[in-house]
Design goal:
119 residues, 11 strands, four-stranded antiparallel beta sheet, mainly beta
Length: 119
Amino acid sequence: EVQLQASGGGLVQAGESLRLSCQVYGFTFHDYSIAWFRQAPGKKREGVSCMSSSDGSTYEADSVKGRFTFSRDRRRNTVYLQMNSLKPEDTAVYYCAAYASCNGPPLGWGQGTLVTVSS
């Protein structure tokens, strides 16, 4: 069974940084692409970043490009989202999810972690 658990969220002020972690279970990075998406109250789900299972390439949404960095630790089966220069607009619940490809629908995801950025 594919399982993922995001953690590391919290309350920060605008301009500060956070690093989110996602522990994955039941698969390796060769099996599925892994992505971060977020959802703010009353808003649609928004893709943030994705790491391809084919070559490890990453893709970022325009809204976070230059501020967020996706990385992985193969030994620990963990991926990270380093979030710098946070803005109030980044406030949302962040989820990590598994995909067959970065352009496809999610195949599984875990409970999210809340990031709140105050102005």
